[in-house]
Amino acid sequence: MPADYAIETSNLRKIYRSRWRRREVRAVDGITLRVARGTTFGLLGPNGAGKTTFVKLLLSAVIPTEGEARVFGRDVHEPEARRPVGYLPENHRFPTYFTGAGMLDFYAALSGTSPADRKRLIPRMLDLVGLDRWGAVRIGKYSKGMLQRLGLAQAIIHSPSLLILDEPTDGVDPMGRRHIREILGKLEEKGVTIFINSHLLAEVELFCGEVAILHKGRVALSGKVRELIAGKGYRLTAAQVPEALETVLRERASAVAARDGVVDFQFATRDEANEAIDLLRRESCAIESLAPTSSTLEDVFVRTIGNGGAVAAAPAAREVTA
Amino acid sequence: MTATLALLRDTFREAIARKIFWGLFGLSTLMILFFLFVMKIDIVAGATASISLFGFRNPHAQDAGRLVRGVFAGVATFLYSFGMFLAVFASAGLTPSVLEPGRIELLLSKPLSRWHILLGRYAGNLLVVLCNTVYLVLGVWLILGWKTGIWSAAFLLAIPTTTFIFAVLLAAVVLVGVLWDSTALSIMITVGLMIVSPILAQKDTMVKLLSSEWSRQLWLALYYVLPKVHDLGHITLSAIMDRTFDGWMPVWTSALFGAAALGSALYVFSRRSF
Asked: What ipTM goes with this model?
């Protein structure tokens, strides 16, 4: 019976201890996460949050201090667990003595692709990533964007069921990014699970169905992107608000900002905004404006990380995806 | 099998790109050309009628078989000393290079065990040196055989023995490489092993000279534990020169050292986070 989850981690922990001192760094601190088959999942977090270490734990490149990680139900320590995985590392260093075609041939062979299949697939992959005329050129001559596209080709040449991409559009121009998104979109349609580690929140918001935000080695927030950014609300701006009423409204609002005698209240629902207007008018306060608002993934991210990593007040926020 | 071949081919490709393969090949070719064009030996009725080097004739005619064996012994000595130094210098970077961040993660993400990756690299490195050794030894053997009509099969022993010594030293290179990712340190330690080998081999003399018991024991312990490059070279030279030698102990103790170094390298590599 096939596993329900492409990725499953349980209390995964990686602690780096310096050899001579007792100081320790908790790069990944007890992450329990599940990524369902066929989803596009974004891993977010500030620098040093543990994202890359987590990805390396999934590939068994980093040995965990505690906990376990499974890919399609298999322990990641088993080499076979990595057969259905395609991976594009961050800051990759492909050997420059390869040509584009040579590099694809090497990594596809390591993934177990037969010589006949490699011969058939290499031109197709080069064409797919727009490098069909560069296959015979040494990759030392490639630009960063071209290397990134070639890296993507090596990650998908063996038709993986799970694609793990660490900063996939790093160094790629806007047209190249769109091209990569299109390729990933087609893979998603085919049911490939795509796990992206990225700093580019707008891109993750655009592409991923689910995200997890890591902070200090822990999952600070995770859930469906649609639900996380559905923090729709209303911004009510009022002037001459008495102090007592402002205190009452501060308790009801999700956010408040005061400046030059004007107060901005953020309410989650229309009813709350209307009740606030009634109260303000009863006290003869001036209503300056009322505008609907929606949050972006960046807002969610900033709220979460700004909150010290505690679960943010997003309506669909969950500690762990189930 | 596909993955193993890919790993071997990759090591070859890197050795060629780093000019390691062609450097060793060029040096071997020079030596073969030396015997082909520069050294002239005339044999008459089993004895050396004349021998000349760069056109200068040596008046001391000798027994032809002994002379050819002497030349073979000279080539073998070159292989064990200068050739081995060159091989270690040239290939010491091939293990740390594969451990570079951004490269090793991608290799580890493939469905291969870690021992498969490291042994693939080790075997590829060994093959590079084996190819060059076969080319040099076979080339010199064929040319001297063709020129003199004397075919000394014992010289061909230099192929397995040189490869064996390199395999033992390469295990040390790989161990240092996976421990510290340092090409320079790999070279220093391995060359150190080669330099101390002839010194430690003087154990009979040193045991008499050393005053304390512990220093004698230490000397002997080091001699038996470390690879015996000097003694292995001596065994091959004895075989070529048709002399007797004192048993195979240097072979199996060196093999043990190589196995322990390679085993330790595999253990460290399997436990390391990248």
From this structure: 0.82
